[in-house]
Structures are given as structure tokens and as C-alpha cells.
Amino acid sequence: MRNKSFFQRAYTVMEIRTGFATGLPVLSGGLFGAYLAGHLKLIPLLLMFVTGFCLNIVANVSNEIRAYLKNEENENTFTHHAGSEGLVRGDATFKDSIIVLLFFLGISGLSGITLVLITNNFNILAIGILSVIAAVCYSLGPKPYIVYPVGELVSGLFVGAISTIVSAYLQTDVLNAPIIIYSIIPMIMTIFLMSTNNTSDYEKDKGTRTTLPHVIGFRNSIKIIIPEALIMIAAWLSLYAMGSITLLMLVTGFLIFYYYGYVRWYKDYYQIKEHYPTMERDWGPRPLLLIYSFNIILGLEFFAYLLLQ
């Protein structure tokens, strides 16, 4: 008998931690745009944050529903992360998941439409509709892209790049090179997150999904992070060369890349020679630490610079 409240059950299918994987890039991207423009539009920034966060929750719940319907999960896949017990592994019911999915779809739709009405920019509406389709079709629908080796790229584009670009654009009212280059960083970080999850699920996904690690091989799925990281570093250097970030921001970014990207994650991750059962529990949160630290700390620096102007 399930004796937890609805909210306790709902929490187990939401994956709140990865919800911030979209919300925080939206926040730092918007603050970067405000830093470039010299002023902050607070309401559009908050609405974009809510929209991005909710759409990521929608994608997470969709994934849980698919795993339940396709019988892809069992007690062996439990990662012991609070809040990620899932529909199969936790106390939530299928009905709970549908309610959560519809609730966050509604909140994201309401905040997105409000944003369109405030800005009178219907291009945002078109992007929002595409983002909703991407979030739901990530796992559900006739051709869910989670089962193909393009999931990392598509997630990087929508979760990292597009959401960041739109958030920054709403602050500047122009789409310029610094915004495009800045969006590469959260895109790559999102790819890191998806790549680590797919590599950790290498054995579990066999027969149900064909992810990039299955195509290029287990070790290559770890090694491919190196050129991706070099692209991220080049983008950060380019912003400094263009005068779009200060020396302090440049140094802060590199310190975060080094500590949370290399010391806390990739240095030991690279040493893994073959898949083992608890990889997801051991390594899944590591790219999240990189995403959290970069977007929160740099977002605060962008905001502080605004206050000092």
C-alpha cells in the first residue's frame, strides 16, 4: 500500500536536479544578455527561467512514463539518489505521473504565453511550441529521439543552446555573436550530462535504445568529451578576445572548468575501462555540479557587474 502523499510521490518522477540543467543556463544566459545590454529586464528573465525549468521536468517525467510503459526499469537500475526513484522504482503511480506531466506543461505554457504577450514577440511562441514538442517527444510519441544516437545533440541544442539564446535575446533585443558563442557553453555542458548518463546506462540500454555510446563504443563515448571540452574552452576564450567578458569572468570560468570539470569529474572518469553496474550513481551527478557552479557563479558575476555600472 502506498502511504506517501501525492506531493511526495510526484517528487520521485520529477528529477528536480536536472530540471535546473535548463533553468540555470536560462538564468545565466539572461544575465549575460543583461550584462551586454547594460540593464536587466527582470520579468522576462523570471518567466524564461520558469518555462525552461518546467519543460525539463516535462522531459524527465516523459522519460519515466516511457520506462514504465516499455518495462525498461527495475530494481537493478535504482541509483539511490533522493528524488529520482522514478515511476517504476518509487512510490508514484502512472496516474501521478500523468498529473505531474500535465501540471508542468500547463505552467510552462502559461509562463511562455505571458512572455509572448509581454514582449509582443511571436517568434518566441514558435520556439516555445517547438520546445514543448521536443520535451514530450524526447521519450514519448512514435519516434522518441531518446532511442536514437542523436539524443545528446538534440538535448544540447534545446536544453542548453536555444533556451540560453532566447533568454539573452530577450534582454538585448538583438541576436549577436557573443550570445551565440556563449550559448555553446551550456550546450556542451548539457551534452556532457546526457553523454555521462548514456555511457553509464550502456548495458541497460542495449536492446531498448541505440545511444551514441552504442554506435561509437564505450571507451570512445568517454574520450569524445575531450574535443567537446576544447570547443567549450575555445568559446570562452573567444568571448574574452571579443571583449564580451572581463578578465575576472574569464579566470572564474576556467577555474570552474578545471575544478568541477576536470578534478571532480573527468580526471577519474577517463580512467574507466569498462562498464560497471553503479556507474550512473557514481558519475551521473558530476556534470550537474559543473552546470550548477558555472551558471550560478557566472550569473552572479554578470549581475554584480550590472550593479557596479
TrEMBL record:
Pathway: Quinol/quinone metabolism; menaquinone biosynthesis. Keywords: Membrane, Menaquinone biosynthesis, Transferase, Transmembrane, Transmembrane helix. It comes from the Bacteria. The keyword Transmembrane helix applies. It holds the Pfam family UbiA. The chain crosses the membrane at residues 20-37, 43-61, 98-118, 124-141, 153-171, 177-196, 229-260, 289-308. It is a multi-pass membrane protein. Gene3D superfamilies: UbiA prenyltransferase (1.10.357.140). Its main location: membrane. InterPro entries: UbiA_prenyltransferase, UbiA_sf, UBIAD1. It is found in: Membrane. PANTHER family: 1,4-DIHYDROXY-2-NAPHTHOATE OCTAPRENYLTRANSFERASE (PTHR13929), UBIA PRENYLTRANSFERASE DOMAIN-CONTAINING PROTEIN 1 (PTHR13929:SF0). This is Prenyltransferase. It comes from Turicibacter bilis.
